[in-house]
Amino acid sequence: MSAQPRPLALALLLAFSSPAAFHAATAHAADPGPAPAEGEASITLAPVTVSASALSLGSDDMSTPVSVLEGDELLRRREASLGETLEREPGIAASHFGAGASRPVIRGMDGPRVKILSDGSEIMDASTVSPDHAVALEPLLSRQIEVLRGPSALAYGGGAIGGVVNVLDDKIPTAVPQNGIEGSVELRGNTAAKEGAGAFAITGGSGNFAIHAEGLKRDARDYAVGHGWSGGGRVDGSYNETETGSVGLSWIGDRGYLGLAYTSQRNEYGLPGHSHELEGCHTHGDELHCGDHDDDDDDDHDHEHEEGGVPYVKLRSQRWEMRGELLEPLPGFARLRVRAGHTDYQHDEIEDGAVATRFKNKAQDGRFELEHEPLAGWRGVIGVQASRRDFSAQGEESYVAPTLTRKNALFLIEERRFGDVRVEAGLRQEWQDINVDSTQRDRSHTGSSVSLGAVWSFAPQYSLGLSLSRAQRLPTAEELYADGLHMATRTYERGNPDLKAETSHNVDITLRKQGGDTTFSVSAYHNRVSDYIYANTLDEVEGLQLIEYAQRDAVFTGIEGQVHQQLDRTYGLTLFGDYVRARLASGDGDRDLPRIPAHRVGLRLDGNWNALRGEAEVYRVGEQNKVAEYESSTPGYTMVNLGVSYQTRYERFPVQLYLKANNLTDQKAYSHTSFIKDAAPLAGRNLTAGVRLSF
C-alpha cells in the first residue's frame, strides 16, 4: 500500500483542522430551500443560464437543444457514473462497461466525439481511449450538468460533433458566503449493488478569500441483474469502489475572482467479460491467427485466472484546476475568463494479482476568453486554447505506442439580435501535432470549423431554432498508431497513420414552447460526416475482432424531444423519446454502424404536493436489429421507474430525503451500446435511498 494520504481523509483534515479559517461557506446547489406554503401557486422559473455557451445564454436562447440537470432533478438522477446519470435524457445513451466505466453516448456518437468538461476545462483522463476506462469525475459532487447536442460548442473543440457535457461544481468558490459556515452532508445506498456512499461539502470565507473542501467515498459490490439471465444473479467483477477529495481556495473581489483547486480521485472497479482465452492471438496480414497455444498452457492459464478472479482497474487521478473571471478587464471588453488544468492520471489493469497493463496520461490544458462590448450591434467572445497530452501504455496490452499530442486553437463566437431573431456565428481553427515514440512517423493536422445558427421567437412562448455547421475532427493518437490486443473490448486494433481530418456537415432544427400548461422541445437533425473514422472489422475468431481504423462517409439522422402537459396544479405528464439511424454511405453500399442506440419512447407522470415531489416513469427501448458486420442484434425491453423526494427541516437545517426504484419489474435488459452487453446486462430491480442535510 502507498504511504500517500487517502483523498477523502486529506479533504476532511484540511476542511476541519483550522476552524478559524472558515467564517462563511456556500453549498447553494445542495440547499433545497424552504418548502412552499400549502396552497401556494407554482412558480415558472426563468431559463437556466448555460455556462458552456460561450455567451452565457439562457437554455431557451440556444439554437440547438440543451439539457440542464440541477437541483432536485439532479439529486434524483445522479448515479455512480456520468453515463448512467444522463442516459434518461432524450438523445443520450450510456456506453455501459460494468459499474465502473460509463460515458455518455450522444446522438449515436461517443468517445472523442463527445467532449466532457469540468466547468469549461476538458477532463484529461483516458476515457476517450477505450470504454473500459472510467471518466475521472464524480457526479455526486456536481452542482449542475449541461449537455449541448451536436457540434454547437465550437469554443470547446471542433471534434465534439456529438456534443459537449459540462459538469459544474463548487470546488472553486466564486463568492464569499454571508451566513457563516455552510455546507452539506449526504448519505445514500442501493440494493442492486449493496452500495453505500457518503459525501460532504463545506465552504468558508472571510474578506476577499473563500476556501472549499469536499469528499466522497463509495463502496458498491457486484450488481444484480434482471430475472432470468443465464449468467446468474449478479455480474461477476462489476463492483466499484471510489474515493474522491478536493480542496479549493479563491480570491474574490468586486469585479471577479481567481481560484485554484486540487482534486484526488481513486477508483477500483472490475472488468466483467474479460477473457484470457485468446491472448496469444496475432495477425497474419488481414487475418487473425489463434492456433499456437498448446492445451497444457491453456489449462495452466485458466487455473491462474480462476485464482486471481476477474481482472480489475486501479485508477488514480490528481488534478489541479485554475478558474478566474474579471469584469471590464480592458477598454471595450466586458469580461475575461480563464480556465486551466494539470492532470496526472494513471490506471493499472491488474490480472492474477499483478499489473498487466499500466496507462499513464499527463496533460495540461488552458483557455482564455475575452468578451467584447457590443460592436455594430454584435456581441462576441474571442478565445485561445492550448493543450498538451503525454500518453503511454506499458505491459501486456500496450497496444498504443507512447505519444505526445499538442493542440492549439483560436475561436470567435458572435451574436446579434434582429427584432425577434437572434443570430449566432462561430469560427474555430485548430492545429495538432502528434509525436510518436516508435518507428512510425509523426503526424500533423489542421482543422477549420464554422457554425451559423438562428432562433426565431415567432410568437409568445414559442421559438424555432436552426443551426448549420461544418466541423472538423482531427484523428486521435490511438486511431493513428494502435497496434495490438485489447482484451477488455475483445479486439485486436490496428491504427492507420494516413488518417486525415473528418468533416461533418450538420443541420439541426428545434421547435420549442417555453411557457404555459403545455411545453415542449422537439429536434430533428441530419449529420453527414465525410471521411468518418471508424473501426473496420477485417476478421473474427471466437468473438475476437481484428479491427483497423479506416475512413468512409457516414450519415447520422435522428429526432428527439419531449412534450410536457400540466394536468392541474399537482400533476403533469411528459411524453419523451428519441431515434437515431447511423450508417456508412459510400463505397460498396450502405452499412450500419456498430453500437448505435435503439429507439426509445416513454411517459413520465410527475406530482408536486408542496414539500413532497414524485414521478412514475415507463419507457420502451426497441429492438436494435440494424447492426454492423460481426455484430449481434439486441432485444428490446421495458423499464418502470419510480422516484420521490421530501423536503423538510431538522431544527434550522434543510433536509432532503429521496427514494427511487429503477427497473421495478426486474427486467432482463441489454445495452446495445456496450462492448460487453452479453457479459454485463443492465442492473435489475434497484432501490436507492438517500438523505442530504444542508447547513
Outline the structure in words.
This protein is mainly β and 695 residues long. The protein is globular. Strand 20 (421-436) and strand 21 (443-459) form a beta hairpin. Helix content is 6%, strand content 54%. The chain has one domain (7-274, 310-694): Maltoporin, Chain A (Beta Barrel). The model is unreliable at 1-5, 7-46 and 293-307 (pLDDT under 50). The two termini are 36 Å apart. It has a 22-stranded antiparallel β-barrel. The chain has a five-stranded mixed β-sheet with strand order 1-6-7-4-5. It has a two-stranded antiparallel sheet with strand order 2-3. The protein has helices at 7-16, 71-77, 82-86, 295-308, 477-481; strands spanning 66-70, 92-94, 104-106, 114-118, 121-122, 144-149, 163-168, 182-190, 195-206, 209-220, 240-253, 256-270, 282-284, 287-289, 312-327, 333-351, 354-375, 378-395, 403-418, 421-436, 443-459, 462-473, 483-486, 491-494, 502-513, 518-541, 544-566, 571-585, 590-592, 600-609, 612-621, 637-650, 653-662, 686-694. One of its GO terms (biological process) is siderophore transmembrane transport. It is a multi-pass membrane protein. Pfam families: Plug, TonB_dep_Rec_b-barrel.
The CATH class, by name, is: Mainly Beta
Gyration radius from CA atoms, angstroms: 25 Å
Q: Can you give the helix content as a percent range?
A: under 10%
CATH architecture assignment name = Beta Barrel
CATH fold-level topology: Maltoporin, Chain A
SS content category: mainly beta
Number of domains: 1
Number of H/I helices: 5
Mean pLDDT: 87
Oligomer: single chain
CA(first)-CA(last) distance: 36 Å
- According to DSSP, the number of beta strands is 34
Poorly predicted runs are: 1-5, 7-46, 293-307
Strand content: over 45%
Shape: globular
Largest sheet: 22 strands, antiparallel, barrel
CATH superfamily: TonB-dependent receptor, beta-barrel domain
